[in-house]
Design a protein that fits this description.
Helices cover about 5% and strands about 25% of the residues. The protein has 3 helices and 17 strands.
């Protein structure tokens, strides 16, 4: 059930609009809400990046026959900002834990939120977060009218660095020596994990996608098994690699170490090969 708090009541309202005639997936259900406005469509939020002044209220308007949510990444909004999500949830965990209705907007429904703190706000649609993530960003100017700098993307001091794109690791295959360290960096604004495939049943993989028998397990969030990483991903998401906190692991034993992103299991897969030298 959705939780309402003082901050969500003050900052967040969900307004039901008018429905239109179904036919094609995109239509204009009633009178458009005032700007600044974001149209919620099957292929994304339009615009996907919106710049506003502090104190302005943004309205999301679902112009599809498909249902969507507007759910903030709690770890990707300013620290002093109020959390926002369609459905009035006071946290990202609460929104994702609601199986029946995580704040779904139907055709013509509207969701509005007032932004007061300057900064960068990343959000997504829960039903369409995997595969090609449906996500957007709000940028709130400073009181002086300047665009604040985005959060720093920290580059780790490691022997090797793997950059995360929206749907890939670069490089996706890396050959290193025993004792060398690898750092994974995520500056995309989208949730990603680095989760080793340990050959268990928690992650469907083939026989060739498991760690060496004597290899140390590795996963962002510090989990000791894939099962623990998967369980966390559906709740707290400690395994989400943030821009300011890259994931670092040092590989000691030779062998092939496969890993993937728990959100994009089919698109984001990588391998670290530790040579026997």
């Amino acid at each position: 059930m959705a939780k309402w708090t003082r901050r969500s009541l003050l900052r967040t309202v969900a307004v039901t609009g008018f429905t239109g005639v179904a036919g094609c997936s995109t239509f204009l259900p009633g009178v458009p809400p005032p700007k600044p406005r974001i149209d919620v469509q099957s292929n994304g939020f339009k615009p996907s990046r919106l710049v506003i002044d502090p104190g302005e209220t943004v309205t999301w308007w679902d112009i599809e026959t498909v249902k969507h949510t507007v759910t903030a990444y709690e770890s990707r909004i300013p620290d002093e900002a109020d959390y926002f999500a369609s459905g009035g949830f006071d946290s990202e965990i609460a929104a994702r834990a609601e199986q029946t209705d995580p704040g779904l907007l139907g055709p013509g429904d509207r969701f509005a939120h007032q932004f007061t703190a300057p900064g960068h706000y990343h959000y997504y649609c829960i039903p369409h977060e995997d595969f090609v993530t449906m996500a957007g960003k709000i940028v709130v100017r400073t009181p002086e009218g300047e665009i604040p700098p985005p959060p720093e993307v920290v580059q780790p001091d490691t022997d090797h660095v793997v950059q995360m794109g929206p749907l890939d690791y670069y490089p996706d295959s890396l050959a290193i020596r025993p004792g060398e360290s690898v750092g994974w960096v995520n500056g995309t604004g989208i949730a990603h994990s680095v989760t080793g495939e340990d050959g268990g049943t928690a992650i469907p993989e083939g026989d060739d996608r498991e760690l060496p028998a004597n290899g140390e397990y590795f996963a962002s969030g510090g989990f000791e098994s894939a099962a623990a990483a998967v369980e966390d991903w559906s709740t707290a998401r400690k395994g989400d690699v943030l821009p300011e906190k890259p994931f670092v692991h040092t590989f000691q034993e030779p062998g092939t170490y496969p890993y993937l992103c728990l959100l994009h299991t089919f698109n984001m897969q990588g391998t670290v090969i530790v040579r026997d030298v």
